[in-house]
Each structure stands twice: as structure tokens, then as C-alpha cells.
Amino acid sequence: MPPQRMPVKQGKPKNVKATIARLFSYLRQDTLRLIVVGICVIGNTAATLIGSYMLRPIINNYIAPENGQGSVSGLFMGLARMAVVYLVAIVFNYMQSRIMISISQKAIAKLRNDLFGKMQKLPIRFFDTNSTGDLMSRYTNDVDSIGEMMNNTMVQMISGMITLVGTFCIMLYTNIWLTIVTVLMVPIMIKAVGFVGGRSRKYYTAQQAAIGKLNGNIEEVISGQKVVKVFNHEAMAIDDFGKLNYDLRDKQINAQFFGGIMGPVMGNLSQISYSLVAAVGGILCVARGFDVGGLSIFVNYSRQFSRPINEISNQVNTIFSALAGAERVFSIMDLEPEPVFGDIPAEDKSPTDKLIHKLENVEGEIVLQNVTFGYNPDKTILKNITLYARKGQKIAFVGSTGAGKTTITNLINRFYEIQEGRITIDTIDIRNIDKDELRRNIALVLQDTHLFTGTVMENIRYGRLDATDEEVIQAAKIANAHSFIMHLSDGYNTMLEGDGSNLSQGQRQLLNIARAALSRAPILILDEATSSVDTRTEKNIQEGMDRLMSTRTTFVIAHRLSTIRNSKAIIVLEHGRVIERGTHEQLLDQKGRYYQLYTGAIELS
Amino acid sequence: MKKVFAYLSPYSLQMAGGLAIKLSATFCELFLPMILGYIINKIVPRENIALIFLWGGVMFVFAGLAFAGNVIANRMASRVARNTTERIREDLFRKISYLSSSQAEQVTLPSLISRSTSDTYNVHQMLGMIQRLGVRAPIMLVGGLILAFFLDVSLTCVMIVLLPVIAFVVVVISGKGIPMYRAVQESNDRFVRLMREDIAGIRVIKALSRERLEREKFDAINREVVERDQRAGVLMNAMNPGVGFLLNLGLVLILAAGAQRVHAGKMEAGTILSFMSYVTMILNSIMMLNRMITVLSKASASANRIVEVLELPEDLLTVPEKENDPKKEKPSDTLLEFDHVSFGYGEGGDILSDLTFSIKKGETLGIIGETGSGKSTILQLLMRFYDTRQGVVRVEGRDVRAFPKEELRRKFGTVFQNDIIFQDTLRENIVLGATERRTKTEGTHCQSAGGGTGNFGSGRFLERAGLQNRCQPSKRNPGMVSRHHDRHHCPESQFHFTLQQNHCDGAGADDWNGNTRGIDGFVPHLSGDPRIPDGKGGEIICRQSIGHPGQTELRIMTITL
To answer: N or C: which end of chain B has fewer CB within 10 A?
Structure first.
């Protein structure tokens, strides 16, 4: 049964304000520069408004003069002043956008960092139940849409508000009737925005989710390329992809239907307003002697009035994508992290329990006492297991698949918390130990290698960051990796491509073992660590490993019996229970399960 | 870019329709200032309110038409953009699925992922925008110029002088912009790569408590992406004020010239008003073009990356036989053959060097060797994931290159050794078999869907392969795999190999240096011995009859790919 899902929740509509507030908190780190931007925006808008107003006297006095002609020099003066004002506006414009880009990029970077930091602290269960590609999508698509919003929308909003207010004032000053006509359109516009916007929001959320799913699928299939090929499943994979692709298209249709209307709706409502103003203005000119200059600038302003509303409506798409993206990002950040210290039930607590951040002089005695655990509450994997290991002892686990061997290592590492019983290290309940500290004292070698893009030296050094080059080489020698490394094109400085795909699986495992050899952890857990290593090499490693293990407590899970033969105790697990325990010779004498496994009379099924 | 636009061709009719509608809508918008000018010049002086209402009504109608037209055209445009992107994405995915391993490795998997996600997104944005602004902006520009020309020639000339200057600025800036955006996408690739590694390898990161180190790495690449994006953004943003300044300058000049002309009686006041409206329209349209160019630059870089992959030549083509296989008369019971094969990955040295062996039907071949000596490589060559550098691989007497790939791969069944056909001379074999099986399921906690066998390959793999969809997969072991749980699923498999990492005689751990007992077939030993610089294969160190007399099957187990 798969581990219980740790789904990432979808945000609810009523949290829009909270989401926006949270997004804005990321800008708060740059308050000073934001203020500067604000000033620039105000400056820009004000200058633009003033510049436009300066047209009125020019037209009235020089272009359509009602009382004689004005002087040419006066005209040029007026124009020059206008030019200067426009120049000022442009300078402000440039500064504002320049700074705003920088601010929003910084905010995005911080958002990604926060997301990453929070994500790292999540329990393993989360990673087991969420697709890699979908998670990645949150860092890319979702964060990008937030970025777009921060970059453009913010500024548009501010400048829009100011333009609106300023324009309104000037219009009032110019002519009340025309102002009323213009303003008449506004509530209609706002209503339109609200209506269309409300409907599209949920579609944007669905759209972002569909993008996430699609990206998840893409990542998986591309990663597993060779596997797909082996089984000639290209056609099927393409089919599956096609379905997700189509689904995304569907969601986009809905999202963008409304988004696509918004722009033209707003744009053309303003055109209508323009024509109304023209008509009424004309009438006023005739009936009330409204000056032509006034009319012309009014026409201009009514345009300027609707532009911010226009722009904002254009931004609706951006805003909603960003909101949807933000919800997806925040929903991960809001998940419960791994508890640093575990929860010990009251009846198991001893009065001397204290929480430990640093372990000193770890002997490495591990005890599992009556441990019961299951990934799912209804399926127990380990049933009342008790076992122990002392310093320097090598304990091996054997058993069929699903018997619970790897589960035990998951528990010792506190990747998952046990349900019943206790696990102690040097008699300290591991739930009392800080997770980081606990893991620092355990060297876990999985069959999975996590080699990252970097040199061989760096990859091995991952086992202990402060190791010297000589220590790294020494560790590589113990792991019998030194010889093949020296045969690589750049030796220890060879760059490894994604997860070491330019090495063979066995070679990767040797690097893994080198890492463990490098770390000084007193407890060593080897989970099928040499499964892909050939027997001769393994024999070569064995001596080195044995030396390593002599001072450490080791748990070994292996199917290769030569690996486990010299263990202090071999524990045979079946269906989550310990059915046999003893040394190799003792178990053979017992002629039980182990004997059968060893002599091949039965399969490990 | 052209190739991307080629994807639009099925929609040419739709696009033409949308274009036409958009055109009309824009024309309607263009006429509005004309009418306004007319009203002021001719109607207002007449002092006839009814006429004003009439012409106002005309404007209203035009505005309404423009509105309707734009809404419809925009919807059509977004539909086209969306559908086109869907097809591009699908084609890209299809192409990637059929890429050969070496091609995929060259582009790198994270880059392939990034191209399928982020780059297609950029292209999508661009396609939509081109149809909307791409139509409206040029039309407003050109239409505005024409109508302005119609209103007053000399004023228009003033404006026209400015245009080349503006065009120059735009071209220079966007020329710099495209390579910058390419750099942004490349950083994106590295970002994706780090993310994948960190999410997939979270267990190791936690186990070694390396969270802080990974955060630092993340921070570094994060900052790089941000910086590059910022630089590109700032550059493109410089266009706006630059162009804006020039345009406003033009406005001022026009006013000056216009005023002169009105004084000289050559122009009416209302005309200037209209003219200014057109200037504003032209200004706006140039701004729109600016914006489009930014999006285009970004999308251009992305489009190139997508097309790069789409245009990769088909690798590992099926080569008809007669051309390259001189030795066709082979004993018909030879099933598999390596004929002086040499091979190495990428630019590296040879991993297999002049390797020759063959297997007959019914034989079992055990391949033993040191880690990294080339065992898995042999399998990969057999299934033609790569082509040899020298020599020929033959299956059933035919060059593997002559087979269509699906046919070739269908011949190989990757099977668990549920049945033990080897007796205890190789007791390790049991252990090995168990190893392969256990490899995945431990982490998957899957119920066996097929019933009976109870052992599946990586749940995740199977999910991909679509063989079973009920498991919630564990994230481990993405690299180990190719396990097929049950022979029944590959009825056409004719043979299977056994790949063993065993000793030659299996009696114990000590007989590595070879005792030749019971020679029946032979087992080439692939020596990864560092003393032999080329890692020459083909040296026989020990021979062993592994096969059980009377066996009719070979089995293959692919350990890793």
C-alpha cells in the first residue's frame, strides 16, 4: 500500500486578500526603493497630466484663437515648456520601471528561496507522494506568473490610480458636464471587470493545476526515457501526454475566454465614451460656448481616464494567473514540516527525558524495542520488532521483499515516525534527538545514488564537507573506486552529469560507499549498497569496509549472502516479524528459513 | 521561428477571418478622430445640434462595431494560439520520446524538460500576442499615418522623419535582447537540473543533513536566473522611454508646425485636433509594437530551442541489410552475435574493444565482469540504444541496424527469474534473482495488480509503461529497472539473457582466477582490469557450463539502463 498521501491543498477564493497581502510582504524588504518608485510614478503621472493640460492654452491662444493671434514666440515658449514637462515624465518613467524590475526580481528570488527552504523541511512522505515535475512547476511556471504580476501590475495599479484621480480633478476643473458624461461610463466598466474577473478566477486556478500535471508527466517520461524505449511504450506515453495536453487546452479555453474579452471590452467602452464626449462636447461648444481648446484636451483626458481602467483590465489575466500560482506556492509553504523532535506518548516518557541537540561520544548502541509501524494506518509493515546492536557489531537483515528491511532503516533515520515502541541510540530515545543531529551520526548508504552535477571529488566530499582531498582519496581507495576514477578523463575532477549517468551503476555505488567511508558517523546503514557491484570488486571492498565497520555499528541489508556471512547476527524478517536470529552457522544449523534461502530451495518471494 | 509559424498554417483560415475582423474593427477606431475633427470643423460652426447628435451617433456606431469586432477577433486569436501551442508541445514530446539515447544525453534531460515546459509557454504567449497586437498595432500605425496624411500632408511629413529614428532604436535594442533571453533560458535549464536532483535525491540530502548546502546551491542558481532576467528586462525597458521621448518630441514639433499652418490659414483648428488624436494613436501603436518586440525576443530564443530539438535528425535509422552485411551465411542457430564490436559513450574512450562472441539458440550466456567493464553496455547495444563504433551486432543473423527498433526490442523480454533454472552450482544466482526482484518493490508498497507474481518492477516505471496504474509509486530507484514481472506480458519474447555478477564456478568466493571446468560454451570475461589500458574485452578467463542440458530458453535480465 502506498504511503498515505500528503496532498497539497487548493486555496479557497475567500483567501484572495490574504494571498495578495502575503505576496506583497515579499516586496516589503525593499520599502525604501518602493517609495522611490512611488515617487517616480507620481512624478511621471503628474508630469503627463500637466503636459496634456498645457495644450489647452496653446490651442486656445495660438491655434484656434478666439481673440486675435498670439505671438509666435509665445507659442514656442509654450511648446518648449511642454517638451520639458514631457521629458521629465519620461525620465521618471524610465527610473520607475528600472527600479521596479529590480525590486520584483528580488522578491521573486526570495519567494523561490523561501519555498525551497520550506520544502526541504517537509517529511519524506511528501516527496513520495507528489510528482517531481509538478513540484518543479511551482518554482517555474507558478513563480513566473507571480513575477509578471509584480513587475507590471503593481506599477500599472499605482500609476492608474493616480492618473484616475488627477484626470478626474482636471476634468472637473475644465468642464462639469463633460465630466459627468465621462464618469457615467466608469461604473459600467467596473461592473464589467468585476463580472468577467470573478468568473475567470477559478479557471485560472484550474489552468495552473493542469500545467503542473502536464509538467509532472513531461519530467517523468523524459527522465525514464530508456525505460520507455525498452518496452516500446513510446506510443502509449505520447498518448498519455496527449490527454494531459488536451486537458490543459480545455482549461485554458475557459480561463482565457474571459481574459480575452476583458481587453477589448475595456478598450472599446472607452471608445464609446470618446464618441459621447465628442458629441456632447460639440453641443456644448455650440450651446454654451465651450472653448475648442477645452474640448480638445477634454477629449484627450477622457482617453486618459479610461486608459488606466483599460490597463488594469488587461492585467486581469496576469493577476489571476499570479493568484493561482501564489496559492500553489503558498500551499506547499504552509505544510507541516518534519517535526524536529518526535512525539513520545505520555506513558513512554521517562522523567529524565530531555531534548537533545548535540550528541557527544556516541557509542552507537541501537535498540529497537517492540516497534510497530506501517506507512498506512491500516497496513502494518513491522510488527512488534525487537532487536539491538552494539558498537562495532554488524547486524544483517535478510528477508523477502516487503518484509520490512528498508522500513527499519527509514525509522532509525526518522524519515518516518514509529507508531508503537521505541528506538534508542545509546539509550536515548531518538525522538528526543534533533533530527539533523541524529542523521549526522548515521551514515546511510542507499542503493539509490544521489550524485549531483559536480566533480567526482565534490560528490564524494558530500559525505563530510570538511574533508581534505587526501581524505577523499583515501575513502575512494577503501571503496575501491580510486582505480576507475583515475581512469576517467579528468580523474577526480571529472564532471559528473545528472546523477552520474556517465558512470555505470556499479561505479556510482562505489562512489556512494566512498561517501560513507568518508563520513565519521558512528552508525552505518548499508541498504543494498553493493547490489550492482560485481563480486570481485565487492570482495576488494570488503576488507576496507570491515575495517570501517569494526569501530561502528552497522546494519546491512543485502541479498548477496557473501556480504552478510560474517555478521555478528543475521536477522531474518518475514511479513514484518523476526522469525530467525543468529549467526550464519547457527542459522544454517537450524535448517529454517535462512537455510532454505541459502541453499536455494526456495525463492525469496 | 519560421518553423513555429508553420504550425499556424492549419489555422490560416481562422486567422484570416480573425485578421479581417480585427482589421475592420481597427479601421472603425481609426475613423473616430476623423469624425471628431469633422464635427469640430464643420458641424459646430453650423450650430445645429441635431446634426451633432447625428454625427455623434455615427461615432457611437463605429465605436460599437470596433468593440464587437475586437472581442470576437481576440477570442479567435487566443483559440488559435492555444491550439497551435498544444500541437507544438505534442510534437516536441513525440520527438523527444523517439530521440536516441545519445541525442537525449547531448541536449541533456533537464534541458529537454525545460524546453517542453518553459519554452513552449513563452511561445504560447507570443503567438497570442502576435495575433492581437500584431494586427492592431501595425494597422493603427499605418492607418493612422495614412489618415494623417489625408488630413494634412506637411504635418505628416514631420512625423515621418521621426519614424526611421525610432525604428533604428527599436532594432538595435531588440537585436541585443534576443541573445540575452537565450542566456536566461540556459540558466533556466541549470535551475531545472538542480531542482530535479534535489527533489529526487531528498532522501540522501536529509540522510546526510545537507539541507544547508543545497540551499546555498539553490540560492546561487536562483540569483543567476534572476540577474539574467533582470538584465534582459532592463534593456527591453529602455526602449519605452527612449521611443516615448522621440514621439513626444514629434508631438511638440507637430503642434508648432500645425499652429503655423493654422495661422497661415492653411489648416483648420479641428484638423489639428484630429491630427493629434492620430499622433496619439500612432504613439500607442508604436508602444504596442515595443511590447510585442520584447515578447518576440523572448519567444524567439525559446522557439529556437524548440526547433533545435525538432530538427534533430532521426538517429539510429534502420539500415537495410544488403548494404552492410557481407557475412550473411551464418549457421542459422546462432541467435546473437557480437562481431568485433568496439564502443564507447560520447567522446569517451572505448568501453568495449574488439569484442566477439556468439550464442546459439537454447544457450545461456553468463556475462561476468568488474563494475564498469561493460556488461550493461552489451545489453544496450543489443537493444540498439546506441550504435557501435566498429563491428556489427547481429540478432538472428541480421544486423541489428536492419531491424525497426520496435521489432528489435520486442524480441527481448526482461524477465524476473521467477523460476530457477539453474541449480545450485550457482547459488548466488538465486540471490541475484532475488536482488533484481526486490530492487524496486521495497519502496513501492504496491499491491500486485496482475495477481500471482507479486513482484513488480519499479511502480513508477510501470506507471510510465502504463502496465499498471494503481500504485502510488515511491520515488526511489528511477535508474534501476526494466523489470518485467511476468513472461505472460511479452508473449513474443523469444529469448532472454541472464546477466550475472557471479563467480565463474559459483562454489565460493575464491576461485576468481579461473578454473576451467566442464567447457561447454564459453563465457567471455570482460576485463576492466586497469592494467590493460583499453579494458580489452574478449579475453577468456574461465569457461563454465552454466546451462542446464535440455534447456530451451535463455533469459535476459537487464540490470540497469
So the answer is: N
